[in-house]
Amino acid sequence: MEITAQMIKELRAATNAGILDCRKALTEANGDFNKAVDWLREKGMATAAKRSDRDASNGVIELYSHGAGRVGVMVEVNCETDFVARSEAFRNFAHEVALQIAASSPLYISEDEIPADVLAHEGEIARKRVIEEGKPEAVAEKIVEGRLNKFRDEVCLLRQAYIRDEQLTIEKLLHATIASTGENILIRRFQRWELGQSTAD
Fold this sequence. Notes:
Largest sheet: 3 strands, antiparallel
Number of strands: 5
Strand order of the largest sheet: 1-2-5
Structural class: alpha+beta
CATH topology of the largest domain: Tetrahydropterin Synthase, Chain A
């Protein structure tokens, strides 16, 4: 896979690693952003990774109302210090996360939160579809895994494509904000309400 300057730029913004290190990480990871971040973390080159174990107990609860009050979002975003909590970059990030939740209706923050029975159920649906479509057994499991990954991309906030830039995920946006503020940042929890919809939906 070709490693583009844009890919290197995004990885650099997210990790603060050097250009050559980012190129090497992306080459080793065959262009996979998350694997490249992991590679840099393993080598001790990623700033965001170094900050991830620091306590984030300051922050903001961002409230957002959309469509003349038809959709409401409350999200808690944490950082390490009150100084960063008041900064424009942090406030903007919290606001963008609230907009994302309003627009894209995620169910979980990360894929670790998806219950095993929900994934098993989605896998079963995907398998039944593959059988109905008459796909060869040799590729069936790959198709099922592909559909499960698409499901994860849709329901996990961090995996969703950023509504303002489809090339970015919310996770990449988070890493870029960690790099620019110099602090660990955490999306702790959120709630989304839609008029006429019960919270159990």
